[in-house]
Inverse folding.
């Protein structure tokens, strides 16, 4: 690997910066999506900092523990939060190959996300309340339906590099392929669908309500309060950002820093912020256009994602070998 | 992968339009409303026109420009117009009735795509057009339209499947041999047009006889 920096400690600094970047920027991105949504719906936006204000307020509140909880209920929120923070070390976005690059396999990442999801669903079922149960089951249903599509997207992307390690995928993209690939475009469409499903966004789940019987994500968090709820929400915001970063790595890696010079890092950072700005607005647009799907239509939605990803995979062999 | 060294890969734009056409075939399979089905058919016509144009530009074959023009006139403007008028006159609105539910049809469609890509791989290696990678895509779109005709219950959707099949045939011809001779193309275009008229009249007859477009009524018609 020629990309390993001469100063390993500097690489680690960048990695830590990446983690802090994800932890502190995720609520801002959430706020940005909320602002655009509010503007599109003719409401007055609550401001970019609203998710931060929510988190800080929740952290100050006391924790009310429901009757009959076990240790699982207490351990899952910090676990969820730190899995997401740890995952940010594996996704290269400020530079191509972070020191944890040998571990940074996309399949590992999918596994980490699955672990976090399993923990969350288990904690939701811990109390045995009907809402938690229902939310947990639905979350697992959506997850098992989107997972094949996620893996097919990974395989489509990794056909270029012959490896599912994210740094080598990024490296193969820099080797002078044209930026316009039918198979990648179709895989990107599938990725958008998977993204919406995995992060409980609108066509699958409505992130801004507690009132519907159809809720998924909120139903799992219903019994949490105070700092524990803050950790769960914060973790979910990080997950959203991480998925976007993964998508940027796969489908729009233009501008990412290849070396460790301050200038290229700065250019990479600006490009990244610009992409997140656009993508956040895009998510808000999608959420304003589409109505929530009935829960029994979700298999159709995910079948579409799987179909698109597999088509992308197949078209690679016909059109681009 | 030696063939790729002998022939340059399909140009990205041609490839992209071809894959968009394949996606539109899948969209026709997935649509639930009649109106949007006709709209997707018109969209497929537009994609076919653009794809013909892109092949014409990439291969520098001037006669394909005329083909593109015919496609635009017939499949984007005239046929959708006729179909919309037909739907309005027959008061057809609402949902498409399917024999197989949509996700299952989609998965079946995927198998069809794998099958036709595998089948057309040797043909693609023999062909020497700029867009030979798309022969498999054309075959897949053809079989998907077949699938649509098989899995639909109503006569109108079956006719749309038939028209989609004609689109796919045209697409395959362009990518395999830069199109059929102009006389044949014109002939086919007029055949399809006349066919649509005949189908239109036929629909009225079906409705008068059975008071429904469900083709299962035609199974036990007395032969006398």
């Amino acid at each position: 690997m020629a990309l390993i920096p001469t100063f390993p400690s500097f690489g680690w600094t960048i990695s830590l910066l990446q983690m802090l970047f994800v932890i502190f920027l995720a609520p801002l991105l959430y706020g940005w999506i909320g602002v655009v949504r509010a503007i599109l719906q003719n409401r007055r936006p609550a401001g970019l900092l609203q998710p931060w204000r929510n988190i800080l307020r929740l952290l100050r509140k006391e924790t009310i523990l429901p009757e009959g909880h076990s240790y699982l209920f207490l351990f899952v929120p910090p676990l969820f939060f730190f899995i997401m923070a740890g995952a940010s070390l594996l996704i290269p976005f400020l530079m191509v190959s972070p020191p944890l690059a040998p571990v940074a396999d996309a399949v590992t990442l999918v596994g980490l996300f699955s672990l976090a999801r399993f923990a969350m669903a288990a904690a939701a079922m811990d109390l045995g309340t009907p809402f938690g149960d229902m939310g947990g089951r639905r979350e697992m249903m959506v997850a098992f339906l989107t997972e094949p599509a996620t893996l097919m997207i990974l395989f489509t992307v990794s056909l270029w590099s012959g490896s599912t390690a994210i740094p080598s995928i990024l490296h193969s993209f820099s080797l002078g392929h044209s930026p316009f690939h039918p198979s990648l475009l179709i895989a990107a469409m599938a990725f958008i669908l998977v993204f919406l499903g995995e992060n409980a966004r609108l066509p699958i789940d409505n992130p801004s309500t507690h009132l519907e019987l159809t809720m998924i994500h909120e139903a799992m968090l219903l019994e949490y309060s105070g700092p524990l709820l803050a950790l769960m929400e914060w973790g979910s915001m990080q997950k959203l950002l991480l998925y976007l970063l993964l998508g940027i790595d796969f489908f729009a890696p233009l501008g990412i820093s290849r070396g460790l010079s301050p200038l290229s890092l700065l250019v990479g950072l600006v490009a990244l912020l610009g992409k997140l700005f656009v993508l956040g607005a895009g998510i808000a647009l999608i959420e304003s256009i589409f109505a929530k799907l009935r829960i029994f239509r979700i298999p159709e939605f995910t079948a579409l994602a799987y179909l698109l990803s597999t088509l992308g995979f197949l078209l690679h062999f016909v059109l681009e070998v | 992968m030696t063939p790729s060294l002998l022939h340059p890969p399909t140009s990205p734009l041609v490839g992209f339009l071809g894959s968009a056409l394949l996606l539109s075939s899948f969209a026709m399979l997935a649509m639930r409303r009649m109106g949007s089905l006709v709209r997707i058919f018109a969209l497929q016509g537009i994609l076919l026109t653009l794809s013909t144009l892109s092949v014409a530009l990439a291969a520098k074959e001037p006669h394909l420009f005329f083909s593109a023009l015919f496609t635009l006139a017939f499949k984007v403007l005239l046929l959708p117009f006729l179909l919309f008028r037909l739907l309005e006159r027959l008061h057809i609105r609402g949902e498409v009735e399917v024999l197989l539910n949509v996700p299952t049809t989609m998965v079946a469609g995927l198998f069809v795509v794998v099958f036709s890509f595998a089948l057309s791989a040797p043909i693609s290696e023999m062909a020497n057009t700029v867009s030979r990678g798309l022969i498999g895509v054309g075959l897949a779109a053809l079989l998907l339209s077949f699938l649509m005709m098989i899995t639909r219950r109503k006569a109108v959707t079956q006719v749309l499947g038939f028209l989609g099949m004609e689109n796919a045939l045209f697409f395959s011809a362009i990518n395999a041999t830069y199109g059929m001779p102009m006389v044949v193309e014109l002939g086919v275009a007029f055949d399809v047009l006349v066919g649509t008229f005949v189908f239109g009249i036929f629909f009225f007859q079906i409705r008068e006889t059975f008071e429904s477009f469900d083709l299962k009524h035609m199974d036990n018609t007395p032969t006398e």
